[in-house]
Please model this.
Amino acid sequence: MTDTRRASPTEKPVVLTIAGSDSGGGAGVQADLKTIEAMGGFGTSAITAVTAQNTLGVESTHVLPTEELTAQLDAVLSDFDVRAVKTGMLATAELVETVADYAADFDCPLVVDPVMVAASGDRLLTEAAEAAYDDLLAEATVVTPNADEAGVLTGVRPEDEAGARLAGQRLLTTGADAALVKGGHVPGEEVLDVLVTAERIETARHPRIDTEATHGSGCTLSSAIATRLAHGEPLVDAVGRSVSFLQRAIRYHHGAGEGPGAVHHLAALRNEAAREATAETVHDVVSWLVAENVRPLVPEVGMNVVGATPYAEDEREVAAVEGRITKTLDGVEPNRGVRLGASSHVARFLLGGREFFPELRFAVNCRFGDDIEAAIEALGWDVTEYDRAAEPDDAAGTMDWAARDTFGDRDDPPVAVVDRGAVGKEPMTKLVGREASTVAERVVDLRDAVARGLDEGT
Model:
């Protein structure tokens, strides 16, 4: 018998990034490699320049000699089956021309991120290098400029959808197969991204995230697109998935450094890893509430316990009881098991609350009545409520509107949210919190306070 274990190699598509190094770790090659790994690729690199930078700005830049770049490219391309390439900071005309020469022989998708200015405003590209981009763009599967970069490359700085379409169409005249004109640098409550190809124009609008922590966002997006293309995805799908990936990375950014911070390249990966643990936590809470017999608090429509993954963005990332918890003759029981995506009503409310307080992860809905109201008052809880009659006609949904109405103007989240109901809508109390144990204990505390009120009233 041998103690040697058999190896089991993992095969991932190889992605090559040709870009500068960021000593701050949030952008450049560092961001690219983190993103490629998070998206299921194997990252390789060819560094064009070494920058001394952090979240506050770029302090110095040292451009590598052309022969050092070609040595790196030759080393990678001679050994690896590269399935996609992305370019970032290329610094000088000589380096742009060198990469363009190599790109002419690439037999894989090429994503060109024309990095010209850092998020801090520091220039990362010489004027001569800007003029040298035409040959590189001609080889691009997709070019991903922000508004400023699109202005430099096309003479059109997009301020609206029409401008973005025009800039994208002009980029196609360079020979690029597609252009993704990003709207992150254009002011407004929404971010508009426009993907232009020879066959179609796709537009995507999404709410702007209230943060300046976008350091590395362009590098992250272009690397994500390259990795999805390396997996063989169609361009439209690769762009859509990558934009969603970036939105989450920006919203749940790193608070490192004295500046605004940097995007969290592994947020999606960490979130995926937490799915099973979140479902298990909800299951444990349900089991405890069953053992505690919280029957007096169960609404006629049933009770649900919901738990969001740490970086949840939609209902598919919220664990809940399928079919809810309902009353039995002398207790309560879940109708079925716990799974992600099982709740609509309470999950949407929790996700709406997380727009204002992302730390909220768990919620339970209980019935509401005079006895519940008296118990909440006796407990001294911070409580708020919403009135369904005030819901505007153009609201996207009651739970989304209710969350904005109850959480939007607060400095801290409440313990409980009251819905007094309406015709055909049962009155409800929703308890929310950061920790599952805290929310579960509050359910039991509320049950006990209701019981004390009944005892005092008899």
In short: The chain has two domains: 14-272, 274-457.
